[in-house]
Amino acid sequence: MSSFTDFHGRILIVEDNTDIASLLIDFFTDKGHIADYAGDGLTGLHLLTENDYDVILLDLALPGIDGINLCQKIRKELNSATPILMLTARDSLDDKLVGFDVGADDYLVKPFDLLEVYARVQALWRRSFNSNQSIISVSDLSFNFETMHVIRGDQDIKLNSIRLKILRLLMENTHRVVSRREIETYIWGDDPTESDALRTHLSAIRQVLDKPFENKLLHTIHSVGYRLYDDSE
């Protein structure tokens, strides 16, 4: 697998607040990126039909087409998998889940620090980079999507199909916490499931993934969700 370094690509900033947009444009331009700008959803949609982008920074409260509808159009009408970071003043869990449900990859609440935006963009690009590879790794854990072979260190990790899907979701989102609802929707869709089903699967994953090792990878974030990362790094 190719190595990952900080990328310098083309970013679309869809933001109706000109002060925030100017800060983002100047910041990413100084970092060596090409930054295009749209002040409303219609202009953003037009630019997306004309150009290819590496990452999209998308405000929710936009004139013309709001961020939620634009995100849906990007995923369904344009059939684009370009990583989307939503930037918004809406900070409730329900607002975040709506964003993820329509296809956003990450969510950052205003006001934000530019360095955190940059870190999130780098993480999204890394995830996009990894998604085009047959193998993704987190610390000493590797998952081969073609063979469905999981290994940590020199030990094989045996998981059933549902647990492999959960593990893949967590590994592809190692930069953030994945909510319980998001995992359940990813695995079972709108079909109801037993209330303890997800907890049972996560417990089984933790049993084989973490118990034999010193460093723990699967972390429960109380009242929020789960995150897979090596906190010793």
How would the blueprint of this fold be written?
Elements (H helix, E strand, L loop, with lengths): L9 E5 L3 H13 L3 E5 L2 H10 L4 E5 L7 H10 L7 E5 L4 H9 L4 E4 L4 H18 L3 E4 L2 E4 L4 E4 L2 E3 L3 H12 L5 E2 H9 L8 H13 L8 E4 L3 E4 L5
Parallel strand pairs: 1-2, 1-3, 3-4, 4-5
Antiparallel strand pairs: 6-7, 7-8, 8-9, 10-12, 11-12
Helix pairs in contact: 2-3, 6-8
Termini, distance in Å? Answer: 21 Å
Q: What is the number of helices?
A: 8
Determine and state the CATH class of the largest domain. Alpha Beta
Structural class: alpha/beta
Looking at the structure, the CATH topology of the largest domain is Rossmann fold
Report strand %: 15-25%
Short description:
This protein has 233 residues and is of the alpha/beta class. It folds into two domains: 10-131, Rossmann fold, CATH 3.40.50; 135-228, Winged helix-like DNA-binding domain superfamily/Winged helix DNA-binding domain (Arc Repressor Mutant, subunit A), CATH 1.10.10.10.
Notes on the protein architecture:
The chain folds into two domains: 10-131, Response regulator (Rossmann fold, 3-Layer(aba) Sandwich); 135-228, Orthogonal Bundle (Arc Repressor Mutant, subunit A), CATH 1.10.10. The protein has 233 residues and is of the alpha/beta class. The chain has helices at 18-30, 41-50, 67-76, 93-101, 114-131, 161-172, 180-188, 197-209, and strands spanning 10-14, 34-38, 55-59, 84-88, 106-109, 135-138, 141-144, 149-152, 155-157, 178-179, 218-221, 225-228. The chain starts with 9 loop residues before the first strand and ends in a 5-residue tail after the last strand. α2 packs parallel to α3 and α6 (161-172) packs across α8 (197-209).
